[in-house]
Design a protein that fits this description.
The protein is an alpha/beta fold. It contains 29 helices and 21 strands. 48% of the residues lie in helices and 12% in strands. Strands 14-13-12-15-16-17-18-19 form an eight-stranded mixed sheet, with helices on both faces. The structure holds acetoacetyl-coenzyme A.
Length: 712
């Protein structure tokens, strides 16, 4: 796990624990053993600490967090760091890749730090629901400014080598072989005294207005953390470095705060999210006997996107950003040019933000190939259709693509819920037809829900999963059903939120409860953002609209139905784009929602007209009624094999729908609440709202609940 080699009078201590050299117990003891050998070897004048393979240690071994015996096994990470710092021979951290969390703490225990110019350092612990508990919160403010330390630790965002140098975190940035540079640096400091290089002996950088800085930062952290406790506790731990008279006392406080976080449900949820995010790449479709281990992707060297609207432009931007020449196809010049302008806007914005250089921007323009001619698509490897949600139009497009594209080209649809098999059926290559459901804005949002149909081949599945990864997105492979995983569950959530309006809530009350739960915005704000016309058209296609605002208006196909969003949309209140929706935005395109008396009166009048006695509904009920039907649908999705595992559903919601990470996703949250409790509440609401069949608990949930009860 760690190896020591001698180069002249320099001992090179290399951590060898692929893939990311995480600091598991064997690695920790390996480092200490090697260090001891170096310290007693009279030839050794200095030591280089580095990582084998792709990176310097990327942190503690997160998989050990569930087994405290392993995680705390001596030497623990602080003991390792103190052993390094205590060395009488200078130790140089030679960083390449990502020195994260415990990895950066290890480096800060060394007497010097050099980094390769493409390296990164950071403290991502906050995203795991914990803090840099290996002395990171005490060391970082001793080497850098308090605001930098606070920002890095509370946000979890890593910094580049150049930034690390300017912030005083490293001593030198180098180019080329990191071990060679480490050796020559170690030789140059071999005879320097190590005492002044021990960071734990340094004073913190405390400016005069340090308390003001903490107060301002505290307010900002509370405002942005949306119910997650780790950011605030991270701040408290950094504050301890300024309050406590000594490093040791600060360390003690850091340990206490770490314990608080470690034992919180939030840390478990966030660590679940970390592994779930990685587990979705290991896709499997048991019903077809295929999976990531056996199916091989084909390379995508060229692509086409049909439709230059918001989704099409975003998908095209994502494709050209990874160097794939992409045809953007429209039916007329006006629409095509609008799409091209949208993409130019994205590129221009990135140049303005310094994320893209002028020459990179130029290259992106050459990769973009606007066209009105399907004939241009003859040689492309994949086509992603991104026109509006109309099956007839989509089928026409798929038939046309089938006749033009080369036989092995993959034909994908960016539908958000329509039947993939219906589209596949109009082609002679149903095995190459698949769904790729991107989320708006498609060049930014992480999630791609990839949907296999009845006849989709393993190669097509592997290819879109591989393409999602290359697009730096998270692909989740799911089965075909109306709405797939995300929107099918979403439908329950939206529907129940509307019934809450009828019974006594106003939009801002529901949205507030959802924001307090941790969503970045409530469901009515979100609907205003995406546009009320989208849902309206969908319901129109399903024949749900137009029965008249009579008593029967509240039922469709034997199910309870709320026509309020239809009325709102018919008033031309389509959301942000028209300046009014559930809220008032002042002007078309406005973004700040204000309560609107017109809408609120309409809701109250509606309840009165239909004889619904309005009542005060508390946040607990709002959360249960919005989220439990969604969770129940998740269990049905698992039962039907549409999703293969709970993690797939959690990632869809965490990465596509703003589900708060500190609750781990809907399925993990259900387990934390207790399946028995969810099951009982579903039964309770089923009795009360028997006209909504979705309260019927999923068979799979019932089975799991009974199994758990039998185990007790
Ligand atoms: N512990 C355990 N396993 C880890 C790990 C860690 N710290 N970091 C990554 N892995 C595992 C992943 O689970 C994955 O395993 P599988 O192949 O079995 O799925 C594998 O290593 C490769 O990881 P990625 O797929 O994420 O690889 P990547 O190249 O895309 O990203 C990375 C590399 C940037 C290092 C990324 O893995 C990452 O961000 N890791 C987490 C870093 C982190 O959070 N460090 C802090 C840990 S907590 C800590 O250190 C507390 C403390 O103060 C002591």
């Amino acid at each position: 796990m760690a190896e020591l080699t001698l180069v002249d009078d320099v001992a090179v201590l290399k951590v060898k624990y692929p893939p990311v050299n995480a600091l598991g117990s064997a690695v920790r003891s390996g480092i200490v053993e090697c260090l001891q050998k170096a310290s007693v070897n009279p030839t050794v004048k200095s030591v280089v600490l580095c990582g084998d393979g792709r990176t310097f240690p990327a942190g503690a071994d997160i998989s050990e967090f569930n087994s405290p015996a392993k995680a705390n096994k001596s030497p623990n990470i602080i003991e390792v760091i103190h052993a390094i710092e205590a060395s009488e021979k200078p130790v140089v951290a030679a960083i390449h890749g990502t020195a994260l969390g415990g990895g950066l703490e290890l480096a800060l225990g060394c007497h010097y730090r050099i980094i390769r110019k493409d390296g990164m350092v950071g403290f991502p612990e906050v995203s795991l629901g914990i803090l840099p508990g290996g002395s990171g919160t005490q060391r970082l403010p001793r080497v850098t400014e308090v605001t930098d330390a606070l920002t890095m630790i509370t946000s979890g965002r890593p910094v580049s080598a150049k930034q690390a140098l300017s912030k005083g975190i490293v001593d030198k940035v180098v180019d080329g072989d990191i071990v060679k540079h480490g050796i020559s640096f170690a030789k140059s400091v071999a005879n320097q005294p190590v005492g002044p290089r021990r960071i734990s002996d340094w004073k913190v950088n405390a400016p005069q207005d340090v308390h003001k800085i903490f107060d301002e930062m505290r307010r900002s952290v509370i405002r942005t953390s949306r119910g997650a406790i780790a950011p605030l506790v991270c701040l408290q731990s950094v504050e301890a470095a300024f309050i406590c008279p000594t490093y040791q006392e600060g360390l003690q406080r850091e340990a206490e705060l770490m314990m608080t976080l470690m034992t919180s449900g939030q840390a478990r949820a966030q660590q679940h999210a970390f592994f779930a995010e990685r587990s979705v790449a290991k896709w499997e479709v048991p019903s077809k006997g295929v999976g990531y281990k056996t199916a091989k992707p084909v390379p995508i060297r060229s692509a086409a996107v049909i439709g230059a609207g918001t989704m099409g432009a975003g998908i095209t931007m994502a494709l050209i950003s990874i160097g794939i020449p992409t045809y953007l196809v429209e039916q007329n010049e006006k629409f095509l040019m609008r799409g091209v302008e949208t993409i130019k806007g994205y590129v221009g914005y990135n140049v303005q933000k310094g994320r893209t250089t002028a020459s990179q921007a130029q290259r992106l323009q050459t990769l973009l190939k606007p066209t009105l001619d399907y004939e241009d698509l003859r040689g492309v490897d994949i086509v992603i259709e991104a026109v509006f949600e109309n099956m007839k139009v989509k089928k026409e497009i798929f038939a046309r693509l089938d006749s033009v594209c080369k036989p092995d080209a993959i034909l994908a649809s960016n539908t958000s819920g329509l039947n993939i098999d219906e589209m596949a059926a109009v082609t002679k290559r149903p095995e190459s037809v698949i769904g790729m459901h991107f989320f708006a804005p498609a060049h930014v949002m992480k999630l791609v829900e990839n949907i296999y149909g009845e006849k989709t081949s393993a190669v097509a599945m592997a290819t879109v999963m591989d393409l999602s990864k290359k697009l730096k997105k998270i692909g989740v492979l799911v089965g075909n059903c109306h709405g797939f995983v995300g929107n099918r569950m979403m439908a329950r959530y939206v529907t129940e939120a509307l019934f809450l309006l009828e019974e006594g809530c106003l939009p801002h009350e529901i949205d507030q409860a959802l924001r307090d739960f941790g969503f970045p915005m409530g469901i009515f704000q979100a609907t205003d953002l995406s546009g009320l016309d989208i849902g309206y058209k969908g319901r129109q296609e399903q024949g749900l609209i137009g029965t008249g605002n009579t008593a029967s208006a509240r039922y469709r196909n034997g199910q309870r139905y709320c026509p309020l969003p239809d009325t709102i949309a018919e008033m031309g209140r389509l959301g942000q784009k028209s300046g009014k929706g559930w809220y008032n935005y002042g002007k078309p395109g406005g973004r700040i929602p204000e309560r609107d008396p017109e809408v609120e009166q309409l809701i109250v009048d509606f309840s009165n007209k239909h004889g619904i006695k309005r009542r005060k509904i508390y946040p607990d009920e709002i959360i249960e009624r919005c989220l439990y039907p969604l969770i129940n649908e998740g269990f049905k999705i698992l039962q039907e094999g549409i999703a293969n595992k709970m993690e797939d559903i959690d990632i869809v919601w965490l990465c596509g729908y703003g589900w708060p990470r500190h609750t781990g996703g809907p399925m993990f949250y259900a387990k934390q609440v207790g399946l028995q409790r969810i099951y009982e509440r579903l039964l309770h609401y089923q009795k009360t709202f028997h006209q909504s069949s979705y309260w019927q608990p999923a068979g799979f949930l019932k089975k799991m609940t009974l199994q758990l009860a039998n185990k007790l």
